[in-house]
């Protein structure tokens, strides 16, 4: 099928979202709660685009690009006046919520209009409740963190705000966080995240940290990975592989 | 004793109907929430006890082969509507409605009315206009103009008795539907023009048909009983008062769309609804009305009662389904509709309690009967909860298209203390406020939407001139701010900011550009939010801003609350010309701010006054005035 993004005719497949097609064609649509490895939820609302169709009698609608499934002849605008207004309001609201976040500020600047017009809530938090961390943790199979409460007081936290029992210290939540809100403190031998302390497994080759002991145990029990995955750091793995090819070559 | 097929149902109905006809006197004690709180259960127990003591042939169950001649049937029914003056005891066939019945009055009722055939005058409804006592529902203005379809059995059948429901013709509609082709059933519902009573007003027949045509090996039927609007209790009353009707509606739907599993989602705060529905489901299972081969047909259908935790957002269809699945109740985008991919990603029909309660009558009486009521685009009737500053509060059901004036001033009996009418709020927290110029608006889905409000589930909150519209908008936004699921940014952060701006206004700190800002943000929240809750959350402020702009302007420009509600910008003083020195306000003042002797003008000490408004509320001479 063919769809039109900002006037360009583009081929798309049934079942794809607007965002997938746009990304494949290097058409930029800003996102905050999207990650290709996870299911989309449409929470951040910054990927809003305006759609219409020649058969719709002029009717237009704002939808989130990450969730809207493409259909033949769909006409999409990624930066119409309505899109910019909606996106601008969303980013303004986020700037009021997380005034210290650079990512939000950049994105708002890029949208064209910066006007912090709303009451700022400066509690130092950079969390925009995109839930990427929760979904990443869920995908890891740990479910160590979740959303707590509702409305404006909603938080991301471990159960009962205590040290999360299920956390294996993989750090996926911190790595995926778009605003850098989740704190992770690493030393050469230890990691601290969600107020829980972990010891690193040292690389057999160079002694650099590989993964946490809990992560190792969890992976051994739940994943089918080569044995050196747990004992060797990626740099040493590379070296080992290179020397293997060297031998095969000679 | 089961009901294996249509013949057995008919035989049972005939036997029960006869038993019902043999009953000489029906005594129906309302056990709706309001009456129950005022002691209806104790009144019921006392009525049974006293009647037995007086040697009357009392029955508390319908007895097809009862030994008593001309029995007296005492039953607990669902809500009879007039909650304002409960507990209610309705006596038939003489149509005597006793109001405010206390246990101490039971002896009188038994001796004078049930044994003696006389009316106890002092328990009758007193018409506030001419102080005359009115005998029955036929005479009382509150009941005039009402037409009961969804509430037909509510207040007449014994709420926890399958027999009582069957005697009143219950499940005959199901028997008829099972003889029909599923497609015929859907066509009949389509022709009736029934629209979803939960607020959206989506055509029910069309929903059912799309569910049938959706791909899937399994289909689900869900009844939404998560009514959460402040001031609304229609669904609660139906679930408590006529649970079998809801179940019958759901089985008919299951037959129409080919489902074998259903759920009723009820909020945990409705314990009696949960209890009565669970009992009704169990009784239906025991009698073969749920389970395998219902009434001898090929239909297998089971219903589970799922309890909600009380989150307002779980009344939103997709959040509700996630909640039943066991996940966090957060809505999802509806680009793919629930009828195609709903509960467990299978095609799902989700209808509201009142919608299902309308279905049996439509199948039994036919779609023409239904469309002969209401308006062209909104046929039938609609239940409303009339609350607020209105003389008669309670549960009513009127044909669609009835004017707001008829509801507020006819059934409602006007405003308390004869104060001026200011607005009526329809559609729950995300509805809107309509002022005096909208009083002649016919109440239906489209007319209300056009006026900037919405039908919602049917709450109607009446407000008088002492209600501040900024305060009302602030109240509803606070509710929505706390009940937002917090998933999407515009709703979570936007409603918070709207509330913050209104709070500023009510403190007299508003700036001229704030009104523009409120309007712009409100409109962006409407287009950018993920679900219906967010999309409609700005309605309370946008509709009041549109219809009562001058009141907002007074808050911003004059730092004054015309209704005298917003404490920070209100001062109470006593008009010396009107004050009679009666001491009433002085006694009512919590911080002792009022001084003055008897028959002398009172004075409010502004340093002590906390602007609570208690003095103004009690003053009979309108002597307490605000700036």
Structure commentary:
The complex is a heterodimer of chains A (250) and B (627). Chain A is of the alpha+beta class. Chain A folds into two domains: 2-111, Roll (Ubiquitin-like (UB roll)), CATH 3.10.20; 132-246, no CATH class. Helix content of chain A is 30%, strand content 18%. In chain A, the strands form three sheets. Chain A has a five-stranded mixed β-sheet, sandwiched between helices. The longest helix of chain A has 17 residues, at 81-97. Chain A starts with a strand and ends with a helix. Chain B has a five-stranded mixed β-sheet with strand order 2-3-1-4-5, covered by helices on one side. In chain B, α9 packs across α10 and α18 (489-506) packs antiparallel against α19. In chain B, β6 and β7 form a beta hairpin. Chain B has five domains: 8-139, 3-Layer(aba) Sandwich (Glutaredoxin), CATH 3.40.30.10; 169-371, NADH-ubiquinone oxidoreductase 51kDa subunit (Rossmann fold); 381-464, Ubiquitin-like (UB roll) (Roll), CATH 3.10.20; 469-557, NADH-ubiquinone oxidoreductase 51kDa subunit, iron-sulphur binding domain (de novo design (two linked rop proteins), Up-down Bundle), CATH 1.20.1440; 571-626, Alpha-Beta Plaits. The relative contact order of chain B is 0.09. The chains are: A alpha+beta (250), B alpha/beta (627). At the A-B interface, β4 and α2 of A face α17, α18 and α19 of B.
